[in-house]
Write the structure tokens for this entry.
Amino acid sequence: MTILEGHPANPAAGDADRPIGYGRLQRKEDPRFVRGKGNYVDDIVLPGMLHGAILRSPVAHARLVSIDTSKALAHPGVKAVITGQDLLGLKLAWAPTLSADVQAVLVTDKVRFQGQEVAFVVAEDRYSARDALELIEVDYDVLPAVVDARKALDPGAPVIRDEIEGRTDNHIFDWEAGDKAETDAVFASADVVVSQEMVYPRSHPAPMETCGAVADYEPIDGTLTLYETSQAPHAHRTLFAIVAGIPEHKIRIVSPDIGGGFGNKVGIYPGYILAVVGSIVTGKPVKWMEDRSENLMSTSFARDYIMQGEIAATKEGKILAVRTTVLADHGAFNATAQPTKYPAGFFHIFTGSYDLQAAHCKVTGVYTNKAPGGVAYACSFRVTEAVYLVERMVDILARKLEMDPAELRLKNLIKPEQFPYKNKTGWEYDSGDYATALRKSMEMAGYDELRREQKEKRARGELMGIGISFFTETVGAGPRKHMDIVGLGMNDGAELRVHPTGKAVVRISVQSQGQGHETTFAQIVAEEIGIPPEDIDVVHGDTDQTPFGLGTYGSRSTPVSGAAVALVARKVREKAKFIAAAMLETRPEDLEWEKGRWFVKGDPSVGKTMAEIAMGAHGTVALPEGIEGNLDAEVTYDPPNLTFPFGAYICVVDVDPGTGHVKVRRFIAVDDCGTRINPMIIEGQVHGGLTDGVGMALMQIIEFDAEGNNLGGSFMDYLIPTALEVPNWETGFTVTPSPHHPIGAKGIGESATVGSPPAIVNAVVDALAPFGIQHMDMPCTPARVWAAMQGRPRPPI
Amino acid sequence: MQIPAPFDYARATSVEDALALLDRHGPESRVVAGGHSLLPMMRLRLARPEWLIDINDLYELDFILREGDYLRVGAMTRHTTLLESAEIARLFPIITDAERVIADPIVRNRGTIGGSLCQADPAEDLSTCCVVLRAEAVVRGPGGERTLSMSEFHRGPYETAVAQNEILCEVRFPILPRSGSAYEKVERRVGDWAVVAAGAAVSLAEDGTIDDVSIGLTAAGIDHTIAEAEAVLHGKKPTEGLFIEAGRLAAAASDPIADQRGPVDYKRHLADELTRRVLRQACARALEARHTTTQEG
Amino acid sequence: MQISMTVNGEDITREIEPRVLLVHFIRDVLRLTGTHWGCDTSNCGTCVVLMDGLPVKSCTVLAAMADGHAITTVEGLATGGTLDPVQQGFMEEHGLQCGFCTPGMMLTARALLDRNPHPDDGEIREAISGQMCRCTGYATIVRSVKWAAEHPAAQETTGEEVTA
């Protein structure tokens, strides 16, 4: 299948290989990427540009005694060295976080995590900047570190945030959802209750491109152009206006091609601010690109939830209630990226895909001497932790009841007729046909045959495991009455212009980090107004070129921005009807739409294509009252609810009984993301997320030693799956459109990251059943699996 | 991205030239071959030589040659060459086994056997292979050439007998009749350093008893062969029971440290498990070689 | 010091500091920014280029070490206006998403196909196992390389009619 760059003008319908609208379509962004012509932040070179580098703390918790920059300043290539004291003078030493806390841009008083920013060097080239870091002399007075979140609230624990007046402990928040009394009552009378503590360890999104920026401050007219690895350029512009005091209309944020985000590029990091300060101080553009260690040690981590889960059921296997208490390690500053009302994100979707009588959770957030953040690592907002909790608990319950885990799930899944389904923690699930998806995955897997094979292998002492997970996500944040980030409602705008010759440009507020927006959003417009996708340019990532909106994370691009784009295209289509009527000298209500043209009802030969209408709109056609001479429209979309993608995953693993090594033999993923715009892109997103799941379940972890030293600070130790750790994915789908979304699409970007870790861990625990193991914590490394086989399933943190 | 501290660079045209350059630039000059151990350390500024002497043009050290009862392998032989060598696979399958799991295919395009041995990382795989195969290291310096056994060559973690003004030129592997060898490694992920690995080589007498055997471990705190485990096998016909006993003794002799790759007891367990596995495989291969030898007459 | 090499078929000579890494030489000196970098420990493989036809990690080769050698970067994969089948395959089979690891993946694929025109899945996975991709989950990369193997004469003349 090949898409031609030259094509016939505006045909009325596409064919299977060249859909005008939804369908498999090669990506519009690929031609530049395969030629090496992408334009990433580090590819940007501006005239006179300088290079910044950050000196970071080697220790996790220490008073800053002194800092001497004189030798660095004497380096011939160095233009400036900026310290926390300098920033205090500029009132920039502390910046607001995304969670109503503040974060040090450069240390002024005390280091609070290893890798924290201490000083910023600006030099003529990146080699000199790196050399000068070694010339800065810093004296630290090392303090005991708080590393284990479980000890953060101990009386006498070192107080990490002692700069906040009156603060005497490391407690950040308590947050609850659901009805505790009702839940406790259900538990008290249940036949069966099982409980398990589990840790979702700290991990890091680790996109292949690290974070960075090029700041270009123009002192004469006071404008700042900031090229940034940002998933949310508009929100960043507003925050920079607030933080740096630069008027918002003087700030332009450009987020060019981004080498993967996965949540890592949502926050505003000290490095971005320092590049801006460096540019203001030197009067030159300043580039800052973090190296991989800086990325892994200082920018936003994910997860780090210690969860105590309990599940109650009848002895026949009817699940009644789930409750959990969670200790959330937020690191040294509360910089988690969550909607304001939800300090634990959407964790209260831990009720999963089951029809429950009651549910309750309590989440407590604490400070520790670790990097701040707490982003959604391809997981919406804490949905990954929630799904992991409930899907592990259901498996543990199945073991207790001696039921097949698939059978237990089928018995308890919410039924199609129960939608829209109000769960016990306040969500309204929009649509679903859960059992169909689970049965489909079991069919694809050959589930019964796998269980037979497992039985035979067990008899021979071989360890084979089959793991299931069924997940419901909540994505597409979100309705402005409930959801904002630092006061900005979570809505997105879209502008569509159809040029006189029938070619179009659509401007969107979300930002691709590889998701293929230039293709998908062109297809949405194409579906609505019948112009081929190749005739539609998608503009994104530049705040001067696009309408306001909150950006791409939490699988929100298609649910929110996709809706905006569909609606703006419908506005244009409707306007086109009036113009076509004028051109055809008939009444709008006498026209009928087919993809790409309006024609006279009952006389299909008389009509006008979009291109003809566009020329008419901009030409000399006498326009009806109230219709302006263009074919443009704009929309800001406020979603009425979130969307609820779901899926059924089955994983088959083989465990080497002698070494504990886990091999993922097969992985079957059936996803339902509602309406499918480009199946090729959907499949790609699922594959990527499944690989992330293998990483988290089997190898990825950011660990710390007792002093707070980060043990996962490079790709030597923070292990990312390679092509040899993952199988050929087996994907399938069902389609249950969202009833409240203009095109019925639910979003797919994070489903697989959310759904796959429990499937893999369930499979590993299933393989280890002969050892009587109920649970083991991720990552299931060979050493940990072996320890579990010896009766030590949960390593100390 | 991390950047090395400044240094000067010279490219050697011959072994003699390299030795002269090392001599001229003194103690802070270092040889670079594939660079995949040294350059990352220099980028992290854990190593900061003042001079780098590049020996990549020393094609004279890139060879695999059979000479009498020895296989001679030049120090500049790349990992990929070793992995793809049919002669190595036939004579010393332990090296082929190891090469499959050393780093990744792209690193193997640059990395060399000499570089690996001189880096002497305790988790390095070829060092164990050389120890197990009772290889000899040929080292050249201003005073001429000397040949070292592996126990003389290894001085401990990251330390060898190769002086600053010397170059490792080749590694010699004795070829034994009716022999077989094997290597197995447990890693957290493909391309990672070993959690623990084991290697073994055996040669059988005409009657099928074990004539010679050596067992070595990687990343287990032991850089010599394990005599006590070998002793139980000497002169006996290979059996599963003997492998189990040898595995137990190898584990007892190991002295691993706990780290992110695993706790001590797990590593000891692996020393046991993997020793059994490689002995089993090495003996199977030796038996096969014995049949081949017999058939060849 | 002065170095000379052939980059994408063109002879170049430049004056450099001895410590300049090949990846920085390619990106910052020659301004060929299709070659990326992603780590400090030679693990990620986003910086892969071909040196005398073999894939190498250009973050772990000094520019000085490449003196006298032939380097191919992603910018040298297409000849004239004609895409390499590997480039075509990555577009056909969705072998890329963010595009960051793509140049290195394609160069490794090219080197593999030059030695082994019909690799199986396992051989392709092994060949790219020193390179990380966070987006694709690798299966579509494997398919892309197979597509290229099956279409050795695939051509695209930029912007014009396509024959698949």
In short: The first helix of chain C runs from residue 22 to 29. Residues 67 and 130 of chain C are 24 Å apart (CA to CA).
